[in-house]
Amino acid sequence: MSLLEIKNLHVKVDNHEILKGIDLTVNAGEVHSIMGPNGSGKSTLAQVLARREAYEVTDGQIIYNGKDLLEMKAEDAACEGVFLAFQYPVEIPGIGNAYFLRSALNAVRKYHGQEEMDAMDFLPFFREKMKLLEMDEKLLNRSVNEGFSGGEKKRNEILQMAVLEPKLAVLDETDSGLDIDALRIVARGVNTLRSPERAMIVVTHYQRLLNYIVPDFVHVLVNGRIVRSGGPELALELEEKGYAEIENQVKEATPA
Amino acid sequence: MITATEQLRTYLDSFTEFQKRASGKDLRWLRELREGAFARFCEVGFPTTHEEDWRFTNVSEIAKTPFELAKPTKISSQELERFKGAGLGLQLVFVNGRFAQELSSISNLPAGVKVNGLAAEITAKSSAIESHLGRYLSIQRDAFCALNTAFAEDGAYVHVRRGVVLASPVYVLFISTETERPAMTHPRNLVIVENEAQATIVEDYVSIGESTAFCNTATELVAGENAVVSHYMIEREHPKAFNVSTLRIQQGRSANVSSHSVLLGGGLVRNNVHPVLAGDGSECLINGLFIGNGRQHLDNYMLVEHASPHCGSRQFYNGILDDHAHGVFHGRIIVHKDAQKTDAKQTNRNLLLSDDARIDTKPQLEIYADDVKCTHGATIGQIEENALFYLRSRGIDEVSARRLLLLAFANECLDRMAASVARDHVERLIHQHLLKMAATKGRTGTSGQNDTGRNWEEVG
């Protein structure tokens, strides 16, 4: 059984159809990359997977780990192992980073009937993960993402992923706006988390990230549909030719 | 409902009765103080919304209710238990405005510290009482101060001698009990912290039952030169209670005073904080948090008087309002002619959780000196949908996420309180309160793409 099966997914945002029939199957252990131009629906797909309610699913289904994902609330999906690394991580003044993550981890543990982790046990575990992402210790007790640089915010997302150890990780443009050093750190964090039990969907606009996180499959999303799928070589082709050519091919193929 | 004349007659009956039996009835200065105050009350009557200071707060409900002085009563120590804060050793308990010695623990005081019920000190003809009581709180200020002074008899008396550092907070608990008829109390507290001394006072107002009660309290707090004083006011009476409180602070040279007002309960609540920075270089922090739901009305009125040069004042108030709750922030700063180099700052931030919640925020600066720095600002916002989703996407359920966000907002006020058992007590109360409030689901503001935790609208 596949970990994730998306069938004929149609999604509306503000009465505007963004996704127009997505089919995608992801097995545990696989890394899929979704590439596409601006406005193609990449982030919408990511947000729907994380169960954002503002996105209205008008048709299709998503089976995750044998369960109907669309029946789940955001927090339940998270507890079931779905993780979204946000394109724009949210600043939350007044809530400490470590406190937030411990609350999240304990929410997930509680969901699975596990014992909650106290601060004493959590801190060493958390520090270890911070080291992996070369994050400054001072970010431990700072408010969530408040005053973080762009790179720190993205690293913080991967840190959260490392702590929560999801089954399905969706990375939404985690590479955008990163310098090459930060990109390497983030990619190393992600690669460390690759495992036969875990699947990843890496949403990106640029091919560059895929030099560091080599996907098993690449899908090209244009205008709400997956128009091409292939191996890592597809990303290189896109890098060379740009999205324009593929968009034109799509236009020619679908008569107006 | 009663007319204005009938209203005065109920108060006159109460006052006549009171003058016959009150502690200190044989002290001429006190008789005169009370009589003068009562005359003043009769003269001005309760304020109306036509008066600028009461524009947003209608007290006609108080005016038209025939209150009588709450009868002395006893409660058991078990009944008391649920209100007590952990670790707060030094306690004074007042039941219906009367000092309950048997429930209080004021022994083992360090040398140079006196803590007692005010009535007992009046009876003992303590000279400090005569030289301080009624000296700072003006009966001209409003009807409530006049009324409180007319009925001034019992309350907390705290006196810390020169140079003495009182490490543990003085915790003062005021309990109103269930009464058959509408009852009023007028607790009067006197806190004297002499030069270079240090103390923390916590006033905590609670109720047993939900009968109509009007608590009209006043505190005179004197901070001598270089003294450091923290004052907490916690209002958590039942949601229909009337509570009017006035904290009058007199600060000497280089004195440092923090006032923390935490309004959680009560139906119609007015909290006045009135510091006078009388000595050069004194500093004052006026910190507040008000959290209302249902039909609560929580009014925060500050009058900060800069009377000397080089003084600093900081006002920070955060409000959280849900349902039909109505909050008021009225921050008035007066910089007198000689108060050069004044540095005064005022900030009021509000979270409105429903369409029907309301906040009136009003800065008012009167500056008569020419070399001063005064700033003010107010913001109104709502819980941001993005922040809520972010927390939920990490596995935190909606109610907890909502509570976390409210807590984060409240933490801004908690962070301004120095670490102490008093702060711990307040923190516990706020956590419990927000948990209750988050469970009765509020509404989510929707404000599109925005990557900060809250969506603020600048209003001043």
Descriptive overview:
The complex is a heterodimer of chains A (256) and B (460). With 256 residues, chain A is an alpha/beta fold. Chain A is 37% helix and 28% strand. Chain A is built from 7 helices and 12 strands. Chain A has helices at residues 42-49, 74-79, 97-111, 119-132, 150-164, 180-193, 232-253; strands at 4-13, 16-26, 31-35, 56-64, 67-68, 82-85, 92-96, 143-144, 168-172, 199-204, 217-222, 225-230. In chain A, the strands form 3 sheets. Chain A has a 6-stranded mixed sheet with strand order 6-9-10-3-11-12, sandwiched between helices. In chain A, a hairpin with a 2-residue loop joins strand 1 (4-13) and strand 2 (16-26). In chain A, helix 5 (150-164) packs parallel to helix 6 (180-193). Chain A starts with a strand and ends with a helix. In chain B, 23% of the residues lie in helices and 37% in strands. Chain B has helices at 4-21, 28-44, 60-63, 77-81, 118-123, 127-132, 143-150, 385-392, 398-414, 421-439, and strands at residues 68-69, 90-95, 98-99, 113-117, 156-160, 170-176, 183-185, 188-193, 198-207, 213-223, 228-235, 242-251, 256-263, 268-277, 283-292, 297-306, 312-321, 326-335, 343-352, 358-367, 373-383, 454-458. The longest helix of chain B has 19 residues, at 421-439. At the A-B interface, helix 2, strand 7, helix 3 and strand 8 of A face helix 8 and helix 9 of B.
Question: Which tags fit this structure?
Answer:
heterodimer, A: 256 residues, alpha/beta, six-stranded mixed sheet, four-stranded antiparallel sheet, 7 helices, 28% strand, B: 460 residues, eleven-stranded mixed sheet, 10 helices, 37% strand, disordered C terminus
Percent of residues in helices of chain A comes to: 25-40%
Question: Which structural class is indicated by helix and strand composition of chain A?
Answer: alpha/beta
Number of helices of chain A: 7
Number of strands of chain A: 12
Counting DSSP E segments of at least 2 residues, the number of strands of chain B comes to: 22
Q: Mean pLDDT of chain A, as a whole number?
A: 92
Mind telling me the C-alpha Rg of chain A? 18 Å
Strand order in space, largest sheet of chain A? 6-9-10-3-11-12
Greatest interface (CB-CB under 8 A), with counts per chain: A-B, 34 and 29 residues
The biggest sheet of chain A, with number of strands, parallel, antiparallel or mixed sense and barrel status, is: 6 strands, mixed
Secondary-structure element string of chain A: EEEHEEHEEHHEHEHEEEH
Query: C-alpha Rg of chain B, in Å?
Result: 22 Å
* Molecular shape of chain A: globular
Beta fraction of the residues of chain A? 25-35%
Oligomer: heterodimer
Can you give the helix content of chain B as a percent range?
10-25%
Flag low-confidence runs of chain A.
none
Outline the low-pLDDT stretches of chain B. 442-460
Terminal residue distance of chain B: 40 Å
